[in-house]
Amino acid sequence: MNHIESFASGINEGCAALITDEVSRRYLSGFSSSDGVLYIVSDRAYLFLDSRYTEMAYAAKARGDIPDFIIVSDTRPFEEIHKINRTERVSTILYEDRRTTCYELKCLREEFPKIRFNSLGNRIEQMRIVKSKREIECIKAAQSITDAAFEHILGFIAVGKTELDVAGELEHFMRCHGSDGFAFETISVSGIKSSMPHGRPEAVELTENSFLTMDFGARVDGYCSDMTRTVVLGRATDEMKEVYQTVLKAQSAAFDAICGGVSGDVVDKAARDYIDNSVFRGTFGHSTGHSLGLEIHEAPGFSAVNTESIPSGAVVSVEPGIYLNGRFGVRIEDIVRLTDNGFENLTRSPKNLIEI
């Protein structure tokens, strides 16, 4: 059963689902478009697209790349939806309350005054937690490109290069080796800027005997990878080595807690306690990890506020860090697939302290 069939099986008689969000539409239909409407009623699904996408959609359907739904080339989908509602006797439309603005809902109610609108809640987001075999293959392919980019960048980093040079080279390499985009804006921060978890790369030259943190990821068929590595340009001081080893051991402590069914707060606590029991207490501010897939940040995550269990098949990052404001910082990040007996680490790049 594909995503759209699984979703449609939960729609009651007299109801239809209106999917307008780009990510949700892609997840259910398998087709990527910046605009469009997916309408699911009874045992039928209609994908409304304008002329920019219809040819691509028909070609994808002919190849069997997307499910066998009805493709409608129409820039005014609501007129056709009125006809469908009369034929199918639709009285209720389920809408994405988490992704629909108040204004958009107001317009929908004005367009369909006799229809009741009920929220979908997190139904689609819940479906997206457990990755299918194909989704895992895409994430692994994206991570493989990301790992290769890290190996490549180690030979590129040198005194005189800038943070922007490093970020640009990582992105160029990923594009040239099969990435269909970037999972997020590449982070490349050096020296005192490495204490900024999401610092932006600038025309700042790399300096000797300092940290360089790189957080980056490729995309394959829309699915994200995510990895952070911190290296030293030159030689690390004893304090830098201590910070690095503390972060690495905190990640190992998190790994020891991971398995399908574990709650997010348990994994977060394992990493956080290790850091807080060291001399670097209070220097790890963000959560230990987040899920990822078609979006770089998805639910659920390894965080102190997530007390719900995370099922086998979820893909989550594991990324503790220590940040000494105005001095330097270290973050190490892998992505893992939870299993009944533990986890599978999808990241292959080395984590020993690398001095260049």
Question: Would you write up a description of this structure?
Answer:
The structure is a single chain. The protein is α+β, with helices and mostly antiparallel strands and 356 residues long. It has ten helices and 18 strands. The protein has helices at 3-8, 22-29, 54-63, 77-88, 102-111, 123-129, 133-154, 163-176, 238-257, 264-276; strands spanning 15-19, 37-41, 44-49, 70-73, 92-95, 116-119, 187-190, 210-216, 219-220, 223-224, 227-233, 289-291, 298-302, 315-318, 321-324, 328-331, 334-339, 342-345. Strands 4-3-2-1-5-6 form a six-stranded mixed sheet, with helices on both faces. A three-stranded antiparallel sheet has the order 7-8-11, with helices on one face. A three-stranded antiparallel sheet has the order 14-17-18, with helices on one face. Helix 7 (133-154) packs across helix 8 and helix 9 runs antiparallel to helix 10 (264-276). It is elongated. It starts with a helix and ends in an 11-residue tail after the last strand. The model has no long low-confidence stretch (mean pLDDT 96).
